[in-house]
Amino acid sequence: MIDVNRRKLVVAAGATLAASTIGNPAWADVAGRKLGYAIVGLGSYGLGRIIPQFKNCEHSRLVALVSGDPAKAKRVAAEYGLAERNIYNYDNYDSIRDNPEIDIVYVCLPVFMHAEYTIRAAKAGKHVMCEKPMAISAAECEAMIAACKTAGKKLMIGYRCHFEPTNLEAIRRARSGDIGKLRYFRSEHGFVQGDPSKWRLKKKLGGGGSLMDMGIYALNAARYMTGEEPISVFATEHTDRKDPRFREVEDMIEFELEFPSGVIGSCMSMYSANQNHIMLMGEKGRIELEPGTSYEGNRLWVGRGRENEITPPPGPGKTQWAAQLDHLSQCVIDNREPIVAGEEGLRDLRIIEAIYRSAREQKRLPLRA
Ligand code: NDP
């Protein structure tokens, strides 16, 4: 059951985090207790985006690598000054249990591996950060949550936009009534896929196509921007199955979300054009982000059109990634739940499953509250 009130609290907690962490003595009190992360999967995100961020963290440090490519792992370990004994592969991964330097495992693997490597980490006594989408099915998400609960370990999903200043300011403005009563949400997310052999274009490896990879940004934003949980969905898919890239997964998918307040969310993802856009319309104006969920350069306008560009206040960390990594470390230290815990990933996967079903059956489907 999606609890609308709880959701409001979670978003509020995120906003409070953004507003309160700068110069907050409680945050500063734990300075120096850096928790050790092991990065699993040295691909474009783990290696290219996450690993370089530890230099910006206050409470997190890189201590170990897990990779199927020993030469790459050795090179990265040397570059970041890691001991060679802290390099693991997918076979000896479970022996991380014997390494007290590793507090948290960050799963940066293709989606079909998320559940297995999260559950194995929990069984090895480690907390887990797992990339989005959380897993290929809601059933897998439930198993991941259960495994972390049984082990008494935290589970957080890599929803970096919850720590990104432009998104936090947009949430604050939407809640503050700047644009009046919200009526409509719109978001399109996509990029052009090339090589058909990539794991993102294999159903078994990615769990789906553009919706799993990019549409999830629109879906998650619809929920955190409105602060509501959708009560029904209707979806339509548009895919050229003769295109070698789209033999197994969808290219374009549109989905309309209905929210309890009457707000309509109109979302779209695609793998055949580049787009990254979020817009909220209210009775008195609109909030627009373009790009909205990029790594850098997100822009925000509030008003009737694009005449009033807003510079957001600094976020909770030096960068969105540093804030995300430090948030989980802080939650471990304080023994509290992350603002984007496993349950948040599960909610998105349940809705994603309903979107695919709605597109197949061409029916509006109610969503579990
Ligand atoms: P890549 O394909 O670039 O890297 C995945 C890595 O996983 C590989 O380099 C490899 O690392 C390891 N791996 C192990 N088994 C396999 C396999 N069978 N096929 C392919 N790779 C394998 O993917 P990304 O880094 O782009 O994505 C990883 C995760 O991060 C995904 O869940 C994705 O959705 C998420 N992501 C999140 C983003 C965000 O903004 N939050 C942005 C981009 C991605 P090794 O060689 O070390 O074994």
Architecture overview:
With 369 residues, the chain is of the alpha/beta class. It has 2 domains: 176 residues, Rossmann fold; 168 residues, Dihydrodipicolinate Reductase, domain 2 (2-Layer Sandwich), CATH 3.30.360. Helix content is 35%, strand content 21%. The chain is built from 11 helices and 15 strands. The strands form 2 sheets. A 9-stranded mixed sheet has the order 14-13-12-11-7-10-9-8-15. Strands 3-2-1-4-5-6 form a 6-stranded parallel sheet, with helices on both faces. Strand 4, helix 5 and strand 5 form a beta-alpha-beta unit. Helix 6 packs antiparallel against helix 11. The longest helix has 20 residues. The protein starts with a helix and ends with a strand. The structure holds NADPH dihydro-nicotinamide-adenine-dinucleotide phosphate. The site of NADPH dihydro-nicotinamide-adenine-dinucleotide phosphate has 20 residues, from loops.
